[in-house]
Design a protein that fits this description.
The chain is of the alpha/beta class. The chain contains seven helices and six strands; from the N terminus they run ββαααβαβαβαβα. The protein has a domain of about 140 residues: 3-Layer(aba) Sandwich (Ribosomal Protein L4, Chain: A), CATH 3.40.1370.10. Strand 1 and strand 2 form a beta hairpin. Forms part of the polypeptide exit tunnel.
């Protein structure tokens, strides 16, 4: 299926207000599923704190002496009340603090994101809007109604530029809507979203940033 080289820009009323060019390197890439899986898995692993900890036998409080003599009681021999089979004893092979992060090259991260954005583009699930028509005052109701007309999917990712505080305040409390700045866009948030909605300013900044990164390589 051919990918369009341009995409319509919608205004606050949902009508065409212009168009933007879609660089092939970002929006016409092949979606490499194993690569996307690896990058998303690494991202989720890096989000884990890794602070889990249980106490072993040597870390539990309690006497180290034998609770009763070795023979003659008819009971199983025991060496300490801190042994795992006793209440309050140590945990066998319990979790210890560790770092779950995985090394993921920047080129792999960029390729996974491009593949996902290209997939959304081919499915007509990528949208660019001039603005949400909010003016100077945040309005969750206005943002909800606008998104319902623009993005038909249940889960929507809204991408804005860092100066657009009004849009952030308007959409951040909407159910099934996640908002990011354009320099925070990542594979996980795209893969769990049905539709991706860019503001025009965020789209231009994202493309410019990716193009600058490609030139610096």
């Amino acid at each position: 299926m051919a990918t369009a080289t341009t995409l319509e820009v919608l205004d606050a009323k949902g009508t065409k207000a212009g168009s933007v060019d879609l660089p092939e390197a970002i929006f016409a890439a092949e979606a490499n599923v194993p690569l996307i899986h690896q990058v998303v898995t690494a991202q989720l692993a890096a989000a884990r704190q890794g602070t889990h900890k249980t106490k072993g036998r040597g870390e539990r409080s309690g006497s180290g002496a034998k609770p009763f003599k070795q023979k003659g009681t008819g009971r199983a021999r025991q060496g300490s009340v801190r042994m795992p089979q006793h209440r309050g004893g140590g945990i066998v092979h319990g979790p210890v603090p560790r770092d779950y992060s995985q090394r993921t090259p920047k080129k792999m991260i960029a390729a996974a994101l491009s593949g996902l954005l290209s997939d959304r583009t081919r499915a007509n699930r990528l949208h660019v809007v001039e603005s949400f028509g909010l003016g100077d005052q945040p309005s969750t109701k206005t943002a909800r109604e606008f998104l319902a007309s623009v993005a038909p999917g249940r889960r929507v990712l809204v991408v804005v530029d860092r100066a657009d505080e009004t849009t952030v305040l308007s959409v951040r409390n909407l159910q099934h809507v996640h908002v990011l700045f354009q320099d925070q866009l990542n594979a996980y948030d795209v893969v769990v979203s049905d539709d991706v909605v860019f503001t025009k300013a965020a789209f231009d900044a994202f493309v410019a940033g990716r193009s600058a990164g490609e030139e610096s390589k």
